[in-house]
Write a structure and sequence with these properties.
Blueprint: E1 2-7, H1 16-31, E2 36-41, H2 52-59, H3 67-85, E3 88-94, H4 102-111, E4 118-121, E5 124-127, E6 133-139, H5 152-162, E7 167-173, H6 180-198
Parallel strand pairs: 1-2, 1-3, 3-6, 6-7
Antiparallel strand pairs: 4-5
Helix pairs in contact: 1-6, 2-3
């Protein structure tokens, strides 16, 4: 089993989303000691945004690209290879201003490539990243689950499904900014949920 962990917090240290995602990966590896892990930490290795230069590089035929364009496309290629090779994907996603971190959006833009990770057919778009289990660890300062303010879950569910990833489990740690006791309870609840999800895998 190949596991891909994607950390999108802006924090290099002390991130709740990263810590909970690492706990989930730890439990998965306890169940499958032979699992191979790749960690893509977007705070330590930020991926560039999709800008005009990147678009020009992507739409230039491979044999006509400049060395700079080839390097830019290769950066996206590396992320695509990671997601293509993963059986399990663990996304660590804090909420920033009611949305996903810009770093995660850059990652999503990089892995979303027509004719590679999705394609258009006469029956509509078809995702090509199929057969993967995705866990999304969500951390929020307030309480947003199942409210109109939660734009993260609908967006992630939609974009992951567009790419072919429909087996998605969301794990919540909410109320982290509502005081020390609320923070402790939220982290404990998320850890308990992680344990409950992963316990059957050890059987």
């Amino acid at each position: 089993m190949n596991i891909l962990q994607v950390n999108s917090s802006a924090r290099t240290e002390g991130s709740h989303s990263t810590a909970l995602a690492a706990r989930l990966v730890e439990r998965l590896r306890e169940a499958r000691p032979d699992a191979r892990l790749v960690v893509r930490d977007l705070s330590r290795r930020p991926h560039p945004a999709l800008d005009e230069a990147a678009l020009q590089a992507l739409f230039t035929p491979e044999d006509a690209r400049t060395p700079e364009q080839a390097r830019r496309v290769a950066m996206d290629d590396a992320l695509i290879e990671e997601i293509q090779g993963a059986d399990v994907v663990v996304l660590a996603v804090p909420m920033y201003n009611f949305g996903v971190p810009a770093a995660l959006k850059n990652w999503i833009d990089a892995i979303s490539r027509a004719r590679v990770t999705f394609r258009y057919t006469e029956h509509g778009p078809e995702g090509l990243l199929t057969g993967k289990k995705v866990y999304v660890v969500l951390t929020r300062g307030g309480q947003y689950r199942d409210t109109p303010a939660d734009t993260q879950v609908p967006y992630l569910r939609m974009v992951l499904a567009f790419l072919g990833m429909t087996d998605v489990e969301f794990i919540y740690a909410e109320g982290l900014a509502l005081g020390a006791e609320a923070e402790r309870e939220a982290i404990a609840a998320a850890r308990a949920r992680i344990d409950a999800i992963t316990e059957p895998l050890a059987v």
